[in-house]
Amino acid sequence: MEVHLYYNHGEEEEKKKKTKKSGDVRAHRKHPPKHHGGLSTCRRLIDEFLRTRPKNQSLTLIFTTRSTRKSNETLAKLQKHLRSASRDDLDRITLKPEHVDLCDLHSVRALSRRLLASLPKLDALVLNAGIAGFTGLNWFRAVYMILTDLVHAVTYPSSYCLSNTGTLVKKQTQLADEPPLGQLFCANVFGHYMLSHNLVPLLEKSNIPGRIIWTSSVEATREVFNVSDIQALKTRRAYESVKYLMALLALTSSLPSTSPWVDSFLSSNNNHVNGQKSSLQNGSSTSTKPNIYVCHPAVCATSIVPLALPLYYAMLSVCWVARLLGSPWHVLSSYRGAAASVWLCLSPQSVIDTAEAAYTALGGGKVKWGASCDRWGRESVVCTEVEGWGYGGVVGPPQLDGDRARRRKRGATDLTADERVEFEEMGRKCWREMEELRVKWDELLDRAEEMRDKA
């Protein structure tokens, strides 16, 4: 039985409800329909599994939200979708809701323990949850960029999105030596990182082998990332920074220079959450280590930036125009945006290995895969150029026909050998920082739990 864990944590924080006066026009403003990438990915996982897998295979789909209420709502929607997709295959799909708050590391530990105790194995871990942290828009800059450079403006909108700087999560323990933890860093990266490490014992039991799939963004950019500010506490473009960090970690995960820290991350011997280590780790010495991948959903019409109804449809219109002008990333539908993550989830290992081998043969390495479509909406999963890594780590201009034909980001330059060396060195530093931070927080949480148990 294949087991997949999928995050449906949502792209925005739950906001506190405010009481509005009956005469306030804002209370009657119409809002656009909400499209959640997490829910769409769950739906696409169901559809693709039923379409491509033989009748004797089954899927356990575990999705997480921040609350029991949201879990129940999502479960009802997925059950409805499953009934509409196929009434003959209902027994092949098992839906299991869970809840977790990625900004609460105790909550991450609690989920880890529940899954370790209840699952026989885990085939794929899709990490797409997080928050953008946007507080508004610089409307003058947004309008100017759309009028003068439309495709770029609606592909990389973070340059005119406003966000706070240095926002921290709530204090995790009562310990005096607890270090600060950035909110966007924790929600988008570190909470996932801790959970993935905790669940390595289950991923090792997969026979495909297990896959850890990071969901980055087409907006991720090197110019706002700084290794010395790995938590993105000093930049006003923290979202782009933490999404670039995801790509750095995944794309350098198979390099010799990062192997000491990657091996530590993928080790089940130092797992701090498993109360029954011996039973879950029997045979781990001969188990296959999980593979690490990174993808992105391109540009979708989601509720990541809340807009009033007229502005929402205006956004859809300009994104559709961008697609007609040759943008490969304006898939618009969050269902289409799930193409890359679902492909990485369900494809046979030989298919993924063959796709990446095309870049390895040219001297490259791992690939950032993205959902894409042409002018007519025909979708595909393609290699995405990454600043400092180029197309799959291949030095020089794009080599494969599809990459050469695809429209590039304005100002993109061909990867140089020096830039690749710099990228690999950044990846090494990031892996070291992340592992040191994980070990520190595991020790802090252990001490906090010991204090709680003694009280």
UniProtKB/TrEMBL annotation:
GO terms for biological process: ergosterol biosynthetic process. Residues 1-26 have a biased composition (Basic and acidic residues). SUPFAM superfamilies: NAD(P)-binding Rossmann-fold domains. Keywords: Lipid biosynthesis, Lipid metabolism, NADP, Oxidoreductase, Steroid biosynthesis. Gene3D superfamilies: NAD(P)-binding Rossmann-like Domain. Belongs to the short-chain dehydrogenases/reductases (SDR) family. ERG27 subfamily. This is 3-keto-steroid reductase. It comes from Uncinocarpus reesii (strain UAMH 1704).
